[in-house]
Amino acid sequence: MTKIGFALLPLLAIGCTHSVHQVSAATAEIPPGAHVRKVEAEAEQHVVLYITDNTDFADEAYRKLLAQCPRGDVVAIEARNSTSHGFLSFDNKFKLTGWCLEAGKDAQARSDAIVQRAAVR
Fold first, then answer.
1. Residue 77 and residue 6: Cα distance in Å, rounded?
2. Which helix (H) or strand (E) covers residue 50, if one does?
3. Is the pLDDT of residue 5 over 70?
4. Which pLDDT tens digit goes with each residue over 10-27?
5. Cα 41–46–48 angle (5° rounding)?
6. What gap in Å lies between CA 106 and CA 112, rounded to an integer?
7. HSE-CB of 80 using CA atoms within 13 angstroms
8. Is 12 helix (H, G, I), strand (E, B) or coil?
9. Radius of gyration over alpha carbons of the chain, in Å?
10. Of 97, 41, 96, 36, nearest in space to 71 by CA
11. 72 within 8 A of 99, measured Cβ to Cβ
């Protein structure tokens, strides 16, 4: 019985790991006085024996992020892709964080800042 236990030990040890694959970030110039707020969204893909039917989980996270800023633009987006391994399965997780630059006076300030930068160049 102990031989079987020792044989299964490596399988159990590799069955619970976590890995962050990639973190990428975008920059944005936010005009002084602009109204911004932090927005976050996550989506997951569960995979068993490398078989799944959810292949658009990253798109789902992006749609959720944009839905939190309906009257503005999401800027300075950070994307984090990670995997959590289980026994014969794993979960891919995609987390997006950004800043909602809301429309109105702020949108006009942003447009003015873009025009000014273009004129300087």
1. 46
2. none
3. no
4. 665 556 777 887 888 888
5. 170
6. 10
7. 11
8. helix
9. 21
10. 36
11. no
- Both tokens of 89, joined, read 């399965």
Structure tokens at 25: 């970030």
Total number of residues shown for the chain: 121
Structure tokens at 118: 């273009």
Indicate the helix (H) or strand (E) that contains 96.
strand 89-102
> What is the pTM for the complete model shown?
0.69
Q: Tokens for 90?
A: 């794993």
Residue that the structure tokens 């300030």 belong to: 109
pLDDT at 95: 96
User: At which residue do the structure tokens 């990670």 appear?
Assistant: 82
Phi, then psi, of 66 in degrees rounded to 5: -65, -35
- Measure the CA–CA gap between 74 and 104, rounded to whole angstroms: 14
